[in-house]
Amino acid sequence: MDEQRFTQLIEQLNEYEGVEEVFMLNVEGEIIFKSTSIAPLTSEEAKALLSDWKEKKPSLNYQNSRYAILKNDDIQLAAKNIAGGKGNIAGSITKEGDFLIAHIAPDTGMILLEWSILVNKVAWS
What is the domain range of residue 70? Predict the structure, then answer.
């Protein structure tokens, strides 16, 4: 995926209130692109997050917080930080084979599974 396409994906996601950060990871879990550097994701964290998704673990860690994985299949991910109110993680594999991951604010007017569907729709647009 190129940077222009990533920028277009961010613009589509930002049409909805609540997107805090967006990452694009390759199949090895390396960060290809990120939308901001407010809460930088390290290479180790990115690889661990993708590994948790691919291995269908019950939870993942993002920014030192645990997120319970509520939906996990080969193309979509939905995880919620239940105890700390740190929001949600929604992810989708893209048509190019990369992994689009968005960190979503806790209160956005849409439930986590709606975000998961939206991220998937944008990733395949």
Answer: 3-123
